[in-house]
Amino acid sequence: MPSQLEAAMDALIAVFHHYSGHEGDKYKLNKGELKELLNSELNDFITSQKDPMLVEKIMNDLDSNKDNEVDFNEFVVLVAALTVACNDFFQDQKKKSK
Ligand SMILES: [Ca+2]
Ligand SMILES: [Ca+2]
After folding, report:
1. Ligand 2 center to residue 30 CA distance, Å?
2. Ligand 1 center to 1 CA (angstroms)
3. How much of the chain exceeds pLDDT 90, in percent?
4. What is the DSSP string of 47-80?
5. In 3D, which of 74, 72, 87 has the Cα closest to residue 16?
6. d(Cα 71, Cα 68) in Å, to the nearest integer?
7. Structural domains in the chain plus CATH codes
8. Which of 6, 51, 70, 75 could pair covalently with 2 via S-S, beta carbons 3.0-4.6 A apart?
9. Where is the EF-hand domain (predicted)?
10. From CA 34, how far away is CA 7, in angstroms rounded?
């Protein structure tokens, strides 16, 4: 049995490759693939931002080597940032409920 963290890491890799394999480079997300991933996997986050340019902005922010694709290294930066934001949110909620 993998630990919870190992299962989460496996899931992260599986999700990335599920979308990155659709077009072009199998190991990178182009803008269309990134959009699909965000809409399917992070729909609450995307809709909460109410920003039609959000995918473009995320793409620009993440694509640190400027090849117009998001590789796994770039993708984990997004996941880490969102995870930190979620953790902050839960800590705030906990403080408020005390
Ligand atoms: Ca691809
Ligand atoms: Ca890139």
Report:
1. 9
2. 31
3. 88
4. HHHT-TTHHHHHHHHH-TT-SSSEEHHHHHHHHH
5. 72
6. 10
7. 4-97 (1.10.238.10)
8. 6
9. 50-85
10. 22
